[in-house]
Specification:
By secondary structure, the chain is mainly alpha-helical. It is about 65% helix and about 0% strand. It has a single domain, classed as Farnesyl Diphosphate Synthase, CATH 1.10.600. A two-stranded parallel sheet has the order 1-2.
Length: about 300
């Protein structure tokens, strides 16, 4: 089904409505880069809404978009055309966008992740790739920055999973590895007493794993153009706060989502100024990408 024509001027409205943490961080980017970032977010939101929506033929629609990105057929709607124009403008690696679609296609079947390696590969597909694309949006010229950008995307996705455990389970999805918690999505969705502590323990593992990727990403932010560093640091701190709030609530995942409120965002933004001090960027920790060999932006060796 053909989508309605897209209005590029609406990109920031989409970001403000659906990506409040990212919108807050984008306010520090400057008009040009903020608009670019909003255009990328709009495409990511478009495919995510298809993947998580209730329209029929979701799998076929996502497959058509993937074919469009591959150049095997004309753009599947104005949203895809707008993204391809953006990709051409800033040299976004199309293989990253294709892997993003692969991640969305995985979500069209019952999800029960078996181990940490599978979890990390999924996080790379749906979020590490976005970090890779954002490097191009922000005019980053350092090749090394790709590795750290992938880490930020993975950290944020791990945080998303920790926040949305109950919501995902009601959709038949369990991203918590079976090697950490041997419960079905149905058992988690029931939120019965027997499922609470094992799931909370797995969420703590998830947040600890996310922390290792956040720490790496924070080092790599020094490789970004100066104008972008503050905004991305704000995004990192605000998103990481979700895990802080979960822990503060004793990982009571059955009580629903936690939210970072505006006052907290202001405080975290001020704290982000500390991270702007110049630092030498060490080599990337290769063990963080051990499970990701062969994926977009990841060294093959």
């Amino acid at each position: 089904m053909q989508a309605a024509p897209i209005n590029q001027s609406s990109s920031k409205q989409v970001l403000a409505r659906h990506g409040k943490s990212f919108y807050w961080a984008s306010l520090f980017l400057g008009q040009k880069l903020a608009h670019r970032a909003a255009r990328l977010y709009e495409f990511c939101r478009f495919v995510d809404d298809i993947a998580d929506g209730d329209l029929p033929h979701r799998h076929e629609t996502l497959a058509d978009i993937k074919q469009s990105l591959n150049g095997h057929c004309p753009p599947a709607g104005p949203e895809v055309k707008a993204f391809l124009e953006l990709a051409s403008e800033v040299n976004i690696p199309i293989n990253a966008a294709i892997e993003l679609l692969d991640g969305m296609l995985l979500d069209q079947q019952p999800t029960a992740v078996k181990d940490q390696a599978e979890l990390l590969r999924y996080c790379h597909a749906v979020a590490g790739t976005v970090g890779l694309m954002m490097c191009r949006i922000l005019n980053c010229k350092h090749d090394r920055a790709d590795h750290f950008a992938i880490d930020l995307g993975i950290a944020m996705q791990l945080t998303n999973i920790a926040r949305d455990v109950l919501e995902d389970a009601t959709m038949g999805r369990r991203y918590l590895p079976a090697s950490w918690v041997d419960l079905s999505p149905t058992e988690i969705a029931s939120a019965k007493t027997a499922s609470r502590q094992p799931t909370s323990k797995a969420i703590e593992q998830l947040l600890s794993l996310a922390d290792s990727y956040y720490k790496s990403a924070l080092l790599g932010i020094q490789l970004l153009p100066f104008r972008s560093r503050f905004s991305i640091t704000v995004a990192l701190r605000v998103y990481r706060q979700i895990g802080v709030l979960l822990r503060r609530r004793n990982l009571a995942w059955w009580k629903g989502r936690v939210v970072v409120h505006k006052l907290e965002k202001i405080i975290l933004s001020l704290l982000s100024l500390i991270d702007l001090r110049p630092k030498k960027v060490p080599p990337h920790q290769s063990n963080l990408h051990k499970s990701l060999k062969g994926l977009a932006g990841v060294d093959a060796t």
